[in-house]
Amino acid sequence: MVSVALHGWLNEDVLQEFEHACEPLGTRLWLDLSQLLGADEAGLRALSRRAAAGIRLVGASPYIQLLLKSQAAADAVMPPGPPVAGRARG
């Protein structure tokens, strides 16, 4: 297993670098979120996709845990992607 530590903010600006670092490792990866201060919607979705693929997210602060739960709940109501005609996004 390989551990990758995230520091600061995971947002759209750094998402490509994050994906590039994680992709070759597949599910042999733990993401250490203990130094993650926050994430935008794109960053939260990237973390959720990784978790759904079997990657362990460890060390998340209560704030990051709340963000992840909130994003999962929002996605359950309105899945990611373009709005469907007649349905307003969020």
Explain what you see.
The chain has 90 residues and is α/β, with parallel strands linked by helices. It has a single domain, classed as STAS domain (Transcription Regulator spoIIAA, 2-Layer Sandwich). It contains three helices and three strands. A three-stranded parallel sheet has the order 1-2-3. Strand 2, helix 2 and strand 3 form a beta-alpha-beta unit. The longest helix has 16 residues.
Q: Any descriptors?
A:
90 residues; Transcription Regulator spoIIAA; three-stranded parallel sheet; alpha/beta; 40% helix
Topology:
Layout: E1 2-10, H1 15-22, E2 29-39, H2 41-52, E3 56-58, H3 62-77
Parallel strand pairs: 1-2, 2-3
Order the strands across the largest sheet as they lie in space. 1-2-3
* Averaged pLDDT: 86
Percent strand equals 25-35%
Which CATH C-level class is it? Alpha Beta
Radius of gyration: 14 Å
Discrete helix count: 3
What structural class do helix, strand and pairing data support? alpha/beta
Distance between the termini: 38 Å
The name of the CATH superfamily reads: STAS domain
CATH architecture: 2-Layer Sandwich
Summary?
With 90 residues, this protein is α/β, with parallel strands linked by helices. The chain has helices spanning 15-22, 41-52, 62-77, and strands at 2-10, 29-39, 56-58. Helix 2 packs across helix 3 (62-77).
